[in-house]
Amino acid sequence: MSKTKAPDSSRRSERSRRAIYDAALALVGEAGYAKTTIEGIAARAGVGKQTIYRWWPSKAAVLLEAFLDLAERASEGESEIPDTGDLEADLKLVLRATVDELNSPAYDGPARALAAESVVNPELAAQFVEKLLEPQLQLYVRRLRAAQDTGGVRVGIELRTALELFTGPLTHRWLLRTLPLTHDYADAIVEYALYGLAPRS
Amino acid sequence: MSKTKAPDSSRRSERSRRAIYDAALALVGEAGYAKTTIEGIAARAGVGKQTIYRWWPSKAAVLLEAFLDLAERASEGESEIPDTGDLEADLKLVLRATVDELNSPAYDGPARALAAESVVNPELAAQFVEKLLEPQLQLYVRRLRAAQDTGGVRVGIELRTALELFTGPLTHRWLLRTLPLTHDYADAIVEYALYGLAPRS
Amino acid sequence: MSKTKAPDSSRRSERSRRAIYDAALALVGEAGYAKTTIEGIAARAGVGKQTIYRWWPSKAAVLLEAFLDLAERASEGESEIPDTGDLEADLKLVLRATVDELNSPAYDGPARALAAESVVNPELAAQFVEKLLEPQLQLYVRRLRAAQDTGGVRVGIELRTALELFTGPLTHRWLLRTLPLTHDYADAIVEYALYGLAPRS
Amino acid sequence: MSKTKAPDSSRRSERSRRAIYDAALALVGEAGYAKTTIEGIAARAGVGKQTIYRWWPSKAAVLLEAFLDLAERASEGESEIPDTGDLEADLKLVLRATVDELNSPAYDGPARALAAESVVNPELAAQFVEKLLEPQLQLYVRRLRAAQDTGGVRVGIELRTALELFTGPLTHRWLLRTLPLTHDYADAIVEYALYGLAPRS
DNA sequence: CACTAATCGAGACGGTACGTCAAGTCTTCCT
DNA sequence: AGGAAGACTTGACGTACCGTCTCGATTAGTG
């Protein structure tokens, strides 16, 4: 066994965990990730520092869980991408919604913090991807597969790769703020990319 | 005058600046951005702390300048994207080279550090984009415009948007390490995206 | 009732008490008073922390009881100072024994700890004096009184004061380690002091 | 070299040192040694914690120096024990003064703290004895030697031992508070002990 | 002999202080 | 005047214990 002692999770205080999630998200939103301290989270949550150190290995881990918890509660039911038969319309709908989400201050703060830390912290990134990002990307895979079955997407296309044509550009603009992230942009990306995936005449 | 004192840049020590760049890049490469300290850079550069604080406002700014300096020396001549007449081949060439660069440890360390900090620090991001990223993206704009002229890319396509179909996915995989970043991946992205930009039959 | 709850001492675990005494003395001997913690005592004794807090108000109290228990077992029969008729020889015998005891590591550790804490903690000092020190000093009073009766000590001497001529110097050397504590020293103290108490010719 | 880095004492801030001495003595006087924390001293002195850790290895060391500094300023001129020719009167005078000092709250607090820590910390004790206690005891040696020359004290008496007949009992009562420490007590000790040192008829 | 109440080992909790590290400012001495 | 050096105040780090507070699991004496 590598660790000296594993705490008994059945004894864990649910109250404290909630308070820590709330405090962490609030502080990151207010002051940014770098200025958020474990001491600050503990103080705001009305909790001893040790209670944080007992259950999480790092500030990043706290925030990831808090964000996961937030995302989980937000998306009760893990909504699939709609399938109206019109792939382009469906993708535009979803991507516009994503644009709105990324532009909303409540999400932006913690999400950026997590993304930034993930860029530089492979362990966190792995969890971030596994728990949050990849499940969302799989929604695209399923929707695109359905389209493939009905002839909207060319057979032979590697869907896990193709979906990045949609999500990659959006993420890029959001992360580095190169240019404004708008509905029009989302529409353009869908239009340009989708035609590339269409069956060749 | 708002600042207490503006240092006289004509008296600045070139030796120290170089030493600071070198030390900063070396430390970020060895230990990562978070573990790189101003004190450490000063010590490694054989320089007083004040010499750093006199000329740069933050650790991120030092690193950005050091990286800019590195990139400048690396690309003497700002190589344009080649134009052999075969857009697909030209893009694959460039994107494969980009993949190799992103996968090389020497670049990866400092670049990640800068990207991560930019995600969370809009001022730095603005400089990063203006000085480093956008000039590179404009290379794509020019190559795509040439293709538009010769009929390889549909008229009416917004090129500044379209180029992100290529760069966005690559950057995304690199930053978050979702999946391996390979030549095959670069090729697939080019193939899928380019067809979407092609003139409609 | 002022206290929240008085524990029922009839249900008290004798096993635990012994284990706590042993652990406390061992730890103080090994690491010193300051580095001995209640948590450490509990762990070493295989006992819950609460079991200590239930029965003792402080670390010092635990140690005092442990030491008292030790002293009690050591001196089954509260040996009086011998009375061979030769006061000087009797006192030298006892003081030499005291020197040996103070120099023995087993006693030294806990006794120092207790003394140090008593210096700074009047409540503990009161108990320490009442339970341990004063009873021992009364042995001197009784032996000196016997000597007074047989003319070895001047009438009018305040014995409770006089005995400190013997014990004070020894204790002083022991506590502050000013100079080595030897049999010769004990002998000298007896010789010098005793003549001062003798009847005046 | 064993230590990582030795600070440059010529650059040391005199202001900080004074403030630390004052704060340390004040806090020990007000709250006792155990409740005095390095953090508290730093805060009260308006000084960073690191400034304390840079120059002293421990709380005890700070206090010792502070106390030494206090004692030094208090006794400008290292007053010798007076020699009126009447040894008994001279000793009573000095011992009564000592009694008053030990009973004065300003001295009592810090001195107790130091004594208590010395009991349990041999390194500190060594310094305490060397710098503070032994010089004072040597005053007794000198006065007793003068008495020996004029026939007030028996030839052959080991003075360094003999003086403990006076100081030992006083210290003992003070440290453990066995009984009240009064002028009468001091007088009695002098009377009893001095006769023991007198030339034998 | 079962019941039931208190003690037990265990350890999570909100806290305080520890001793360390680095931040950014200031001062001194050198070139 | 800039630079090397490094002491200063500040504040967060992660750790160790504090004393309090639940938790089942014994473990007695009582009904």
Write structural notes for this entry.
4 copies of one chain form a homotetramer. Chain A has 201 residues and is mainly alpha-helical. Chain A folds into 2 domains: 12-72, Arc Repressor Mutant, subunit A (Orthogonal Bundle); 78-197, Tetracycline Repressor, domain 2 (Orthogonal Bundle), CATH 1.10.357.10. Chain A is built from 10 helices and no strands. In chain A, helix 1 packs across helix 4, helix 1 (14-31) packs across helix 6 (105-120) and helix 5 (87-103) runs antiparallel to helix 10 (183-197). The model of chain A has no long low-confidence stretch (mean pLDDT 91). Chains in contact: A-B, C-D. The first copy, chain A, binds a DNA duplex (31 and 31 nucleotides) through residues 7-8, 10-13, 16, 37-40, 42, 46-51, 53-54. Chains A, B, C, D: Keywords: DNA-binding, Transcription, Transcription regulation. Chains A, B, C, D: Residues 37-56 bind DNA. Chains A, B, C, D: It comes from Streptomyces maoxianensis.
A few lines on this structure:
Four copies of one chain form a homotetramer. Chain A is mainly α and 201 residues long. Chain A folds into two domains: 12-72, Homeodomain-like (Arc Repressor Mutant, subunit A), CATH 1.10.10; 78-197, Tetracycline Repressor, domain 2, CATH 1.10.357.
